[in-house]
Amino acid sequence: MIKRIALFAVSMIIFLTGxxxxxxxxxxxxxxxxxAMAKLNLKQLKSPNIVINRKKYTLSxxxxxxxxxxxxxxxxxxxxxxxxxxxxxxxxxxxxxxEIDSNSIYYRFFKINYPNLKDLQNALHxxxxxKTEFEASRYQEDLNASPRPDSKLGGNxxxxxxxxxxxxxxxxPFVFNWTDGSIAISNESINELAPIIQxxxxxxxxx
Length: 207
Prior knowledge:
Blueprint: H1 2-28, H2 33-39, E1 48-53, E2 58-63, E3 66-72, E4 93-104, E5 107-112, H3 117-126, H4 131-142, E6 158-160, H5 166-170, E7 183-184, H6 187-193, E8 202-206
Parallel strand pairs: 1-8, 6-7
Antiparallel strand pairs: 1-2, 2-3, 4-5, 4-8, 5-6
Helix pairs in contact: 3-4
């Protein structure tokens, strides 16, 4: 019995090591952002925007409508569209970067303006928030300020890195959703995007 358990444990270690090595090889073969731009004869990005695809697990950087580079991304543990606070879901829609935190627990954090006006209107229509709550949150939207952190619809959603477990998670040859609703990419990917992403950068999240 002990021998079988030991053989199983060794087999699992070999399997997981192989998976990690495969993931490392895949990442080493990926073009850097500067290399991707050079192939497109782009010296700088004047109109960068981000398009996120839930089904393809990608975060794609565009120069206007031209695809520059795509990154592997993961999302909230709840696969449904975000509706309320603490539902562990990622919102879908058109947003923009409203706040940047370079000292996040997840390395870097680019907050989006969720819930935006459309999210608020839908919540009001569905009875998820009151008229008073709608007006208070809409006032923040009108000021182009970060959404209220105490919103019933949730908040503090954005694009961030992996943090301390970066080496492990970025080299897995498969993806799984583990965040509380934000979009996570590797720390290296966040570093590439950091000089590009600014307050006001458009972010589209598709199903």
